[in-house]
Design brief:
The protein has 239 residues and is mainly alpha-helical. It has twelve helices and two strands. 59% of the residues lie in helices and 9% in strands. α2 crosses α5.
Length: 239
């Protein structure tokens, strides 16, 4: 499949008559962080977006389809009333869709910092620290493009049809679709990771956690084996 075909097949939100405004909303939240609807509209007025209801509908639609989520709330004044208004941010689906936008893909560390709804298996600051420590901005852009396309190729369906918690299952197949990633890492001095605050402690804690889990699993296996042995012995005696 050609790149455009892959994008059309995997990311429905960037297709059709609403594609332009959808991408403007995704770009704004990626580069500015969580915002209420009206602030998104204000940021886009300089991009020739005239009507607030248009942006409001796009935000609602993108949230309904899983590209956005509510990150928190902010108190605003409407007339003489003060009321809470939700702030919106990118989900993983929204982040993936935003990678079709040049301004976003050129500033990935900033986008990660601006996206509190993105969940990582390690602390967010550590992820960003590792990226900045190992790679130059242009390298980050190149690697992101490769992972992005590899990930989309590995998906069996469009991103709206796959639960976000299952995305990680497609990361490894995605990396296999992007062999240039391996080349980038092989040329790096990984000892630099030790300079990332908390990284070494995190690795040790992770190893300790795995060791504990394995120990508990082995205990369980030994108990099961003893019970099976006892069961087999009883059968032999009865026979």
């Amino acid at each position: 499949m050609e790149i455009e075909e892959i994008l059309r097949a995997r990311i429905p939100a960037i297709q059709g008559r609403d594609a332009k405004n959808n991408k403007l909303v995704l770009e704004t939240l990626a580069l500015h962080g969580p915002l209420i609807k009206y602030d998104i509209f204000k940021a886009l007025k300089v991009r020739n977006v005239r009507y607030y209801p248009t942006i409001s509908r796009r935000v609602d639609d993108l949230k309904e389809r899983g590209y956005l989520g509510i990150a928190g709330e902010r108190t605003i004044t409407v007339g003489k009333r003060r009321e809470a208004s939700p702030t919106y941010a990118l989900t993983w689906s929204g982040f993936i869709a935003s990678l079709t936008i040049e301004r976003v893909i050129r500033d990935i560390p900033k986008v990660l910092e601006n996206s509190p709804l993105l969940r990582f298996p390690v602390p967010r600051d550590m992820v960003i620290g590792v990226i900045k420590e190992l790679f130059m901005p242009k390298e980050i852009e190149t690697i992101t493009r490769a992972i992005f396309m590899g990930f989309l190729k590995a998906l069996p369906r469009d991103i709206e049809s796959i639960e976000e918690e299952k995305y990680l299952a497609y990361i490894i197949p995605g990396l296999l679709e992007a062999p240039e990633i391996k080349e980038k890492f092989e040329k790096k001095d990984l000892s630099k990771l030790l300079q990332v605050p908390g990284f070494l402690e995190f690795v040790w804690n992770l190893i300790d956690s795995f060791e504990t889990q394995l120990s508990e699993s082995l205990k369980g296996i030994r108990i099961i084996r003893k019970r099976l042995q006892k069961y087999v012995q009883n059968i032999s005696i009865e026979a």
